[in-house]
Every structure is written in C-alpha cells, then in structure tokens.
Amino acid sequence: MRKLNMENTLGTAIFLTSKAMERAAEYRIKKNMDLTPLQWKTILTLNYFNGISQKELAGKIYVDGSTLVPVIDRMEKNGLVERKLDPKDRRNNLIFLTKKSKSLVDSIIKIIQQLLKEFYKGVSQKEQEKMRIELKKIMDNADKTLIQN
Known about the structure:
Elements: H1 10-33, H2 37-48, E1 52-53, H3 54-60, H4 65-77, E2 81-86, E3 89-97, H5 99-119, H6 125-148
Antiparallel strand pairs: 1-3, 2-3
Helix pairs in contact: 1-5, 2-5, 3-4
C-alpha cells in the first residue's frame, strides 16, 4: 500500500502557519478587548462593507450563515451591530456597525498590526512580497484544478 506523508508538505506548512497566526490574533484580541474571533472579524469586515447581508458577511469571514446568526444576535444585543431590513428585498437583513463598534476598529487594527510585526520578525519586505507572489501562483493553480474538473 502506498503512503503519503503530509507532515512536511508546503500546504501543511501554510495551513499550520495560518492557524498559528489566527490563534495568536484571537488570543490577543480576546485578552485586550474581550471580543470573540467572529465578533472582531465581523467588525473589521463591516468596517469595509457596512450594510451587507448576513449571507454576504458569512461568506467574507468564511463561516456558514447559520453559525453567524447567534453571533449577530449577541452583537446586536450588546449594541455592536444593527440589523435593518433590505429595502430591495424585505426577506433579508442588512448588517451595520454601530458607533460603539466603530470605536473599536482602530484598536483591533492596532493589535493586528503589532502582531504582524511580531510574525514577520526577521523576514524582509522583499521576502514577504516574493512569498505572496509564489503563494498566489499556487492558489491560482489550485483554482484552475476546480475549473478543469
């Protein structure tokens, strides 16, 4: 029987690196701001796309729509977001930031910027850019396999 060692693949390294970075951000923001990962990701996403549907929001933060519903419920209860009926389709709610959540954006960004400095310590801007270019090639190739099949 053939075996495939996935431990030392580039894909595994990328995945584990991404998860480590995400865990660090989740921990630091929870510790400093008492926001859950889905809460701060929602706030940052709405900071760019304020007034999008719950379905669009879920897609942008890579979670299932049903997972996001209780998070939005809690955030609305805590005054962090506001739901409004979509004037184009009254079956949908649009999600908006409140003043309270807007006041948190700069602090969240500051924490993430500090973390990125820590993560990229010893990695030059040139090296970072080269990695981004190479990873983009791999991502494009992976997307092409979806189209071909």
